[in-house]
Amino acid sequence: MDNDLMPLLQLCDSNFPSGAFSHSFGLETYIQEQVIVDKESFKTAISTFLDKQLVFSDGLACRLSYEILESSRDIDMNELLEIDRLLFVSSLAKETREGNRRIGERMAKLCMELYSSTTLGEYLHSIKNKQGYGHSALVFAFVAHHLQIDKEKILSAYLFASVSSLIQNAVRGVPLGQTDGQKLLVEMQVKIHEAKNRIMTLTKDDLGAVSPGLEIAQMRHERLPVRLFMS
Hints:
This protein is mainly alpha-helical. The protein has one domain: Urease accessory protein UreF (Orthogonal Bundle), CATH 1.10.4190.10. It contains ten helices and no strands.
């Protein structure tokens, strides 16, 4: 096994304690409204989430952050914090903003223990001093650049980890059977590859162009009477 695959496998492991298992990012709204009722309806929802939220927000931010890191030896933290800020302010639902912030900060702390780097340390310091918010997309980019992992590999890994986490949450929330969950993860692999290729063609101007329907579902989640997930 290539040495650079091992950190990717660790970060993509569903047991990695980032806190993502507590969040549905609005998909629980569709579950309670019975828009999502089985494997096929969830596949439609997760495909939309991938094509919109993960392509134009999280995934693009991961790629842009990596490119800032590789563009110069003297890293401008302000450029990275601008990406961080854009991610935070473009998320209209409070729970989603806070969910991403908590996951990002938790992942930054863990990765600082596991794969420490100067840039990641500065990012974590910025979060602690309220100069940054925290997002897992940036943490993935910091770890990848520090370990000299190929940009497209880390992007594919980030998308896979995000989709895998939501599928595991759907196994509990819909509920889906474990076998259907694994089948769905296989079926999504082609879509993940296509999403990665699309991200490689986008520019910073595309950042934040997500689906209004998803944003509304994320806002409405705050008022659900009974919830399994925090967002």
